[in-house]
Amino acid sequence: MITTNSIPNQNELKQILTPEQYRITQEHGTEAPFSGIYAETKKPGMYRCIVCNSILFSSTQKYDSGCGWPSFWDSAVLENIETSVDNSHFTTRTEVHCKVCQAHLGHIFDDGPAPTGKRFCINSASLNLDTTANPEVGHNINFKVKSKE
Questions:
Q1: Domains and CATH numbers, the chain
Q2: pLDDT bucket at 26, cuts 50 / 70 / 90
Q3: In angstroms, rounded to a whole number, what is the distance separating the alpha carbons of residues 137 and 149?
Q4: Is 121 among the catalytic positions?
Q5: Which one of 53, 81, 93, 108 counts the least CB within 10 Å of its CB?
């Protein structure tokens, strides 16, 4: 696990990350539903990027969507999240990235609960749950999807 907000190069990432973490964060992969370690966890804490350790989501924003991946109704630190249009798999979706290191995290959908109506569907392999961090962080209720130019 990376403990600072440094961004390793691709060769370093291959040494630091598991093959699954590398495939998901660097090659835009997806883990199988209900297979990730955080899909059903209810432990309090902050979810950090597995690549650069940036805070992404709070356990207070996590909910059980039934989709098989950790789901959040908002991001903990909006400045650390970035989106782009994903036209793969014969559909158009909105992909979610860590803005700090560009790691692929998952996708965002418009079928989540109030107050945002958003469902951040995130791969467990792109996250590290920091149970020592205080999950009581302000919520970014005005999240906007940015299109890729």
A1: 10-130 (2.170.150.20)
A2: very high
A3: 31
A4: yes
A5: 93
